[in-house]
Amino acid sequence: MCAVAVSGLFPAAATQRTSDPGGARLKEAVEQTVADGFPGVVAYARNGERESRIAAGLADTASGERARPHQRFRIASNTKSFVSTVLLQLEGEGRLSLDDSVEKWLPGVVQKNGNAGKDITVRQLLNHTSGLYDPTDEPEFFAPYLERQEWDHVYTPREVIARAVRHKPLFAPGGGWSYSNTNYLLAGLVIEAVTHHSAPSEIQRRILAPLGLKDTSFPVTDPAIHGPHLHGYDLAGRDMTRFSPSYDWTAGAMISTVDDLARFHRALFTGTLLRPAQQRELLTTVRFPDKPAYGLGVQRMDVTCGSEPGTKRISAWETDGAGPGFTSVSLTTADGERQLVLAANVYDLGAELKDERPVPHSEGLGKARTAALCD
């Protein structure tokens, strides 16, 4: 699963490591998150050129290995901002338009039951206004994993899309907003149709290699996390680290670290990766009542820096991710000066599918957010 505004769910913590003595309040927030029920938490914060890295708790409850800031984790829907960046680069090169129809690039893929690729644009995929159904909201979709423990089970992107179009659209394209992983699976297929290369290889060539993101990877079917990494857990403490990423693909299959995510988002939000016209498109949000201010794979939010009347509010860009065993959030202030990337190793997919809270309750994320972006 992939979530928007994971910040509303996040918990608090308990044991640390920091390279910056100025991060005392961040350290306290991370420790609260562990104390509130997360086995481990890792965080990166930046204020200008000054950086902090903090870890608390355990990476592996079985072995007792401590959490460390350099450890990898599944970033889930944070993947979407990598995908939107590639498509925006392709538009800047004149190889497609975000106003092209899905049908132009993927003929016959989105049709039947009221779904029509000719009426949906690439832009509507990226800002979740396509109206396409998301089958990963269904408990039965995850039965191979959660019921039969077939952790290596593979869904291809086209299988997931085919399941989506068996359902009627939620609304006419452009007529509403609904978060759907189907949108980003189609976006990945558009990348492949335009470039004639795999979507993971385009992300590697265009983003990971130029930025030196050596701890970031894009597994397609491999259910393991290789190298130093956090283990991920459900609420009962079951280890969910081994889990096929195939169903998530360009909607959320990537693995990274807090440092690599921070480096990518620093480059993205300061305009290093995109031409000015595409940068404006990235940050142009759609607004519907009671829905997030969502751009193209990124979300705009305001951070309140206190509880007193007239308290300062800071505008920030956010991406987040939630999937089996892991929850994470990345925040960059609109001026690019401050960042927070935080990951914790609990997310209970089974609970979410039953509309239950998938993480322990904690105020830790809110405190971490304030410490990193306001202090």
Cα distance, first to last residue? 33 Å
Structural class: alpha+beta
What are the secondary-structure elements, in order, as H or E?
A: HEEEEHHEEHHHHHHEHHEEEEEHH
Tally the beta strands.
Answer: 12
Give the overall pLDDT as a whole number. Answer: 93
Low-confidence stretches: 1-5, 7-19
Tally of helical runs: 13
Label the overall shape: globular
Structural commentary:
The chain has about 375 residues and is an alpha+beta fold. Helices cover about 30% and strands about 15% of the residues. The chain has 13 helices and 12 strands. It has helices at about 25-35, 80-90, 100-105, 120-125, 145, 155-165, 180-195, 200-210, 250, 260-270, 275-280, 350-355, 365-375, and strands spanning about 40-45, 50-60, 65, 75, 110, 115, 255, 295, 300-305, 315-325, 325-335, 340-345. The strands form 3 sheets. The chain has an 8-stranded antiparallel β-sheet with strand order 3-2-1-12-11-10-9-8, with helices on both faces. α1 (about 25-35) packs antiparallel against α13 and α6 packs across α7 (about 180-195). The longest helix is centred in the middle third of the chain and has 15 residues, at about 180-195. The chain is globular. The two termini are about 35 Å apart. Residues about 1-5 and about 5-20 have low confidence and may be disordered.
